[in-house]
Design goal:
Elements: H1 2-19, E1 25-27, E2 34-35, H2 42-50, E3 56-58, E4 63-64, H3 66-76, E5 84-86, H4 99-113, E6 119-121, H5 128-139, E7 149-151, H6 158-178, E8 187-189, H7 196-210, E9 215-217, H8 225-235, E10 243-245, H9 252-265, E11 271-273, H10 280-293
Parallel strand pairs: 1-3, 2-4, 3-5, 5-6, 6-7, 7-8, 8-9, 9-10, 10-11
Length: 299
């Protein structure tokens, strides 16, 4: 009888896996789908349409063209419960010019659906500064007033993209605040984007306004001490910061001292990554003193 019971359990587990009860996630992750035409996207659309209570859509590791994106978008217009868009690396091998219209279509669909996003991940899509224009409207819309995690790692943003992004985040905060529910972004990821000083400084301004950040990952962005100092000042207004990753940017002494001053005020910090940041001796001493004085949660 025990054997039967275990078989029943196995069957139950299988059927639950099929209906995806609970997590509300539909995944096409890593399927290397080449979706160019509306026809190519038929199966994806069918699954989206038939999925009740869709909360998370994974499209990573596929390549989606403009026409396919538009029909997928159409299917998303009815998905008001969507909260998480795992859309990294979904434009493999696409022309840069194809990405903004695809993103605009998908973003407009989320706005139409009345979705309230919690996470938007567009990492590893080489869209460059123009690509930000593709989801700028989405970021400023009510669909993103609830956003907690924004991930844009390795997107080729550059200074221009960083500035557009910062302006969109500020606008989102302004509009959501006017509705009585200010944007409370927790996680911001934008490593490997050549943001440099001007991009970092623009984003620092947005961070200072937002004030709810818990994790900031901006490694390898060619940021020097002016940008690092601007970020340090913004971090000081984000008392919940737990993780600060600025690996492989050039602090030098000035940046390191500014960051050390901020670290003295932050009480929740658990992880600091300032590796390969050329903090120099005086900078290292300043950071060491800050760590010694506070940061009792450091892991």
């Amino acid at each position: 009888n025990r054997k039967m019971a275990s078989e029943d359990i196995t069957k139950l587990v299988e059927s639950l896996a099929k209906t995806k009860v609970g997590d509300g996630q539909l995944s096409f992750k890593g399927q290397s789908l080449k979706l160019n035409t509306a026809e190519d996207a038929e199966e994806v659309i069918k699954q989206i349409e038939e999925f009740d209570g869709l909360e998370a859509l994974r499209l990573e590791g596929n390549t989606v063209g403009v026409e396919a994106a538009k029909v997928i978008a159409k299917a998303l217009e009815k998905k008001s419960e969507l909260k998480r868009c795992h859309w990294s690396d979904m434009f493999t091998g696409r022309l840069r010019s194809e990405i903004p219209p695809a993103l605009i279509a998908l973003g407009d669909a989320l706005i139409t659906a009345g979705a309230q996003l919690v996470e938007l991940d567009l990492s590893d899509n080489a869209f460059g500064p123009d690509g930000v224009r593709g989801f700028e409207t989405l970021l400023k819309s009510p669909a993103c007033y609830t956003l907690q995690e924004l991930k844009l790692n390795n997107c080729g943003l550059g200074i221009g993209g960083g500035k557009i992004l910062a302006a969109a985040l500020k606008e989102c905060h302004r509009k959501s605040s006017a509705q009585g529910k200010p944007l409370a972004l927790k996680v911001f990821v934008a490593g490997r984007n050549r943001l440099e000083n001007d991009g970092a400084t623009a984003l620092a301004e947005a961070f200072g306004i937002i004030g709810t950040l818990e994790e900031v990952h901006m490694p390898q962005n060619g940021i020097n001490h002016p940008g690092i100092t601007a970020l340090a000042q913004a971090f000081a207004i984000n008392p919940l910061l737990k993780v600060i990753n600025l690996n492989d940017n050039t602090f030098t002494e000035k940046g390191a001292v500014a960051m050390a001053e901020t670290l003295k005020t932050l009480r929740q910090v658990e992880v600091i990554n300032f590796g390969d940041c050329l903090v120099r001796s005086k900078g290292a001493v300043a950071i060491a003193v800050a760590v010694k004085e506070g940061l009792h949660k450091l892991k």
